[in-house]
Design goal:
The protein is mainly alpha-helical. 69% of the residues lie in helices and 5% in strands. Strand 2 (66-69) and strand 3 (73-76) form a beta hairpin.
Length: 228
């Protein structure tokens, strides 16, 4: 799966590229919670002027990932257990609706094939005991669901909260039980979508997000990871 910064630089503005590259570093914890960087430091790192960096920081601040600091720098905001509780409340409700909408509308054979391929990626990653590959495949599956739901506003809201949860999911990846049940949930969801059973699709995905949200909050509290 391509990363958020794989597009050729010439295809996007400098401000967009700065936004994507800074965001990618935050999501992958290269800029961990509490990190403070000045505009000029970021501009030097990204090899561009301060103006697009400033635009990128304003955008990231609106998304709740950073604070814009005096003298035009940034501080990466933490994600607490309570933040995750609120984030997953939103994801559980909205993403279940996105899954149900696909089932109601009916997925084309090509879309069903892509969903099944995403589950196969997750199965292959677990078989290889590669949790990093599994996490990428799992993220890919969820983003395919969003891509097919047909509601761009719903997609944009869910993606924002998925991004905010990504850092915690990455840091707790090896603390959680082996995610066999997630693969099974996704397989069952695809089957419900294929049957055009919107009620079952909603129920499966709602239960999946609810269970995983509770697990992540419990991991944060059990291991004292209150501010990531």
């Amino acid at each position: 799966m391509a990363s958020v910064i794989d597009e050729a630089p010439g295809r996007v503005t400098f401000a967009e590229r700065a936004y994507r590259e800074i965001k990618a570093r935050i999501l992958e914890n290269e800029f961990p919670a509490g990190s403070i960087m000045l505009e000029q430091e970021l501009a030097a790192l990204l090899e561009m002027s301060r103006t697009p960096v400033r635009e990128a920081l304003i955008r990231l601040a609106r998304e709740g990932m950073i604070d814009v600091r005096p003298r035009h720098g940034m501080r990466v905001l933490p994600v607490s257990a309570n933040d995750m509780r609120e984030i997953y409340q939103i994801l559980t409700a909205l993403e279940a609706e996105a899954a149900a909408q696909i089932a109601r509308d009916g997925a084309t054979p090509a879309r069903l094939a892509e969903l099944k391929a995403a589950v196969a990626e997750m199965d292959a990653a677990l078989a290889a005991d590669d949790l990093d590959a599994w996490a990428l495949a799992d993220d890919h599956f969820h983003r395919v669901i969003l891509a097919f739901c047909g509601n761009e506003r719903l997609k944009a809201i869910i993606e924002q909260f998925m991004d905010q949860s990504h850092r915690v999911r990455k840091l707790t990846l090896r603390l959680r039980p082996r995610p066999v049940s997630s693969n099974d949930d996704h397989r069952a969801l695809v089957a419900a979508i294929e049957r055009r059973d919107a009620e079952t699709a909603w129920r499966i995905h709602h239960a999946h997000r609810l269970r995983n949200g509770r697990m992540l909050v419990e991991l944060l509290e059990r291991h004292g990871l209150g501010q990531l």
